[in-house]
C-alpha cells in the first residue's frame, strides 16, 4: 500500500518539482494549491486551499478531513516571499508575513498530529535560517522563517514520535526573488534532496540550517 504525503504550496516552483518526485516514486500525493492547480493523476490529487486567513485554513482542513487523515508525511512548502524596503515595514506587514509563513504550518501540523498516522514533517525554511543578519528587503519574511526554526526545534522535543525537519534550500533557478550573485540549482535537485531526507524515516530529528557563527551583515 502506497503512503500519502501532503505538499502545501504545490503549484509553485519547488512545489511542482516535489509533486513530480514523490508521485513518481509511488507516493499518493495530496497537492495543495491556491490558484493554479495541476491535473489529477493516478498518484496525485490537487486540493484547492486558501491559506490567507485562520478561517480559510480551518475550512480547508475540515473540507478534506477524510483524505488528510491518511497522511504519514507533510511537507510545509507554502509561504510566498514578500519584498518591501526594511525602513517601510509596518506592524501590519509583519502580521501578514507571519500569517503566511507560520499559521498554515502550525494549524496543518496540529491537525495531522491529532488525526493522521503522521511520521514526519518537513518544513521549508530559507537560505539563511538560523542566522542573525541585517535585511534590506525581506525583513518580515526572514523573521517568520527564523521563527519556523524555533518552532521545528520545539515541536521535535514535544512530539518525540514524529520526526520534524527544517530544510533550507539553496536559491533555485527561475525563482522570483534571488540574492545578488546567487548560485542557483534546479528545483528538481532540491526536490530530490528533500525526498532522500524523508526516505530515511529516522526516529530522530534532522535539521539543515546555516551556522549563526558564520553570519555576516550584508
Q: What's the helix and strand layout?
A:
Blueprint: E1 4-7, H1 13-24, E2 28-33, E3 44-48, H2 54-63, H3 65-68, E4 71-76, H4 91-101, H5 103-115, E5 120-124, H6 139-158, E6 163-167, H7 187-199, E7 206-208
Parallel strand pairs: 1-2, 1-4, 2-3, 4-5, 5-6, 6-7
Helix pairs in contact: 1-7, 2-5, 4-6
Give your account of this protein's structure:
By secondary structure, this protein is an alpha/beta fold. It has a single domain, classed as 3-Layer(aba) Sandwich (Rossmann fold), CATH 3.40.50.720. Helices cover 38% and strands 16% of the residues. The chain has seven helices and seven strands. Strands 3-2-1-4-5-6-7 form a seven-stranded parallel β-sheet, sandwiched between helices. Strand 1, helix 1 and strand 2 form a beta-alpha-beta unit. Helix 1 packs across helix 7, helix 2 (54-63) packs parallel to helix 5 (103-115) and helix 4 packs across helix 6 (139-158). The longest helix has 20 residues, at 139-158. It is globular, with a radius of gyration of 17 Å. Residues 203-218 have low confidence and may be disordered.
Amino acid at each position: 500500500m502506497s503512503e500519502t504525503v501532503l505538499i502545501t504550496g504545490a503549484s509553485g516552483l519547488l512545489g511542482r518539482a516535489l509533486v513530480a518526485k514523490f508521485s513518481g516514486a509511488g507516493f499518493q500525493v495530496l497537492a495543495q494549491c491556491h490558484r493554479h492547480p495541476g491535473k489529477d493523476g493516478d498518484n496525485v490529487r490537487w486540493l484547492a486551499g486558501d491559506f490567507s486567513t485562520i478561517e480559510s485554513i480551518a475550512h480547508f482542513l475540515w473540507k478534506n478531513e477524510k483524505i488528510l487523515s491518511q497522511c504519514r508525511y507533510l511537507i510545509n512548502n507554502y509561504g510566498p516571499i514578500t519584498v518591501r524596503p526594511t525602513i517601510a515595514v509596518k506592524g501590519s506587514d509583519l502580521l501578514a508575513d507571519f500569517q503566511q509563513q507560520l499559521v498554515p504550518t502550525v494549524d496543518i501540523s496540529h491537525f495531522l498530529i491529532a488525526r493522521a498516522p503522521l511520521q514526519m514533517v518537513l518544513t521549508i525554511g530559507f537560505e539563511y535560517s538560523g542566522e542573525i543578519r541585517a535585511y534590506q528587503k525581506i525583513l518580515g519574511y526572514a523573521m517568520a522563517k527564523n521563527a519556523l526554526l524555533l518552532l521545528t526545534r520545539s515541536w521535535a522535543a514535544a512530539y518525540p514520535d514524529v520526526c520534524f525537519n527544517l530544510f533550507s534550500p539553496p536559491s533555485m533557478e527561475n525563482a522570483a526573488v534571488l540574492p545578488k550573485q546567487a548560485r542557483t540549482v534546479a528545483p528538481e535537485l532540491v526536490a530530490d534532496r528533500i525526498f532522500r531526507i524523508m526516505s530515511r524515516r529516522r526516529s530522530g530529528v534532522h535539521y539543515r540550517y546555516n551556522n549563526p557563527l558564520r553570519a555576516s551583515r550584508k
